């Protein structure tokens, strides 16, 4: 199967919203304006996986500060810092799971982060995803932010990309 990883375009939003609705059951899906906001602020770091002109998954990322994660469902007026690369939302269509699409999107993001000089990547793992992100090399990390808005069991996690471990 040939899968194209490309930056999000205007015509992708209906597929992204459909995938989001299919995937998120333990939290309220983010509204369209909050999702589009990430792409407007950092268009080079937001991707879809496409096969035969069908969007099968997406990943929204952006630069962020080394502190609490951004609030969910809230449009950002600006990106707060660039100390770390933040993976905001990854979702794969249920009919495309097991095809390696999530891994392709993650690899695209991590390669971008490395090439752009980031040493650390962060995310909030939601629903049943913490174990998945542990296998991807992420580890739970303390945060001062209450993660209730991210649903039960949400965990703030980080992965080091730099050449030397942080002090």
How do the strands and helices of this protein lay out in sequence?
Blueprint: E1 4-7, H1 13-23, H2 32-41, E2 46-51, E3 54-64, E4 84-92, H3 101-115, E5 120-125, H4 130-135, E6 139-140, E7 155-160
Parallel strand pairs: 4-5
Antiparallel strand pairs: 1-2, 2-3, 3-4, 5-7, 6-7
Count of all domains = 1
Oligomeric state of the chains in view: single chain
Mean pLDDT: 93
What is the CATH C level class, in words? Alpha Beta
Approximately how much beta-strand content do the residues carry?
25-35%
The profile of the biggest β sheet is:
7 strands, mixed
Corresponding CATH superfamily:
Gcn5-related N-acetyltransferase (GNAT)
Q: State the secondary-structure class.
A: alpha+beta
Helix proportion range: 25-40%
CATH fold annotation? Aminopeptidase
SS summary, helix count = 4
User: What is the CATH architecture assignment?
Assistant: 3-Layer(aba) Sandwich
Query: End-to-end span in angstroms?
Result: 43 Å
Low-pLDDT sequence parts: none
Query: In what order do the strands lie side by side in the largest sheet?
Result: 1-2-3-4-5-7-6
H-E string: EHHEEEHEHEE
Rg of Cα set: 15 Å
Key structural traits:
167 residues, alpha+beta, Aminopeptidase, seven-stranded mixed β-sheet, 26% strand
Kindly describe this structure.
With 167 residues, the protein is of the alpha+beta class. The protein has a single domain, classed as Gcn5-related N-acetyltransferase (GNAT) (Aminopeptidase), CATH 3.40.630.30. Helix content is 25%, strand content 26%. The protein is built from four helices and seven strands; from the N terminus they run E-H-H-E-E-E-H-E-H-E-E. It has helices at residues 13-23, 32-41, 101-115, 130-135, and strands at residues 4-7, 46-51, 54-64, 84-92, 120-125, 139-140, 155-160. A seven-stranded mixed beta sheet has the order 1-2-3-4-5-7-6, with helices on both faces. Strand 2 and strand 3 (54-64) form a beta hairpin. The protein is globular. The protein starts with a strand and ends in a 7-residue tail after the last strand. The mean pLDDT is 93.
């Amino acid at each position: 199967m040939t899968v194209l990883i490309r930056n999000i375009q205007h015509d992708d939003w209906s597929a992204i919203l459909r995938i989001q609705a299919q995937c998120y059951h333990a939290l309220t899906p983010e509204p369209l304006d909050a999702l589009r906001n990430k792409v407007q602020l950092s268009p080079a770091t937001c991707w879809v996986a496409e096969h035969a002109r069908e969007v099968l998954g997406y990943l929204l990322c952006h630069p962020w500060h080394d502190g609490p994660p951004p609030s969910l469902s809230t449009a950002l007026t600006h990106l707060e810092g660039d100390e770390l690369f933040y993976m905001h939302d990854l979702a794969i269509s249920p009919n495309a799971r097991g095809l390696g699409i999530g891994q392709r999107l993650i690899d695209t993001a991590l390669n971008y982060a490395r090439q752009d000089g980031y040493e650390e990547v962060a995310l909030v793992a939601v629903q049943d995803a913490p174990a998945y992100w542990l296998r991807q090399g992420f580890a739970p990390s303390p945060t001062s932010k209450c993660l209730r808005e991210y649903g039960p069991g949400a965990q703030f996690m980080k992965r080091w990309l730099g050449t030397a471990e942080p002090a």
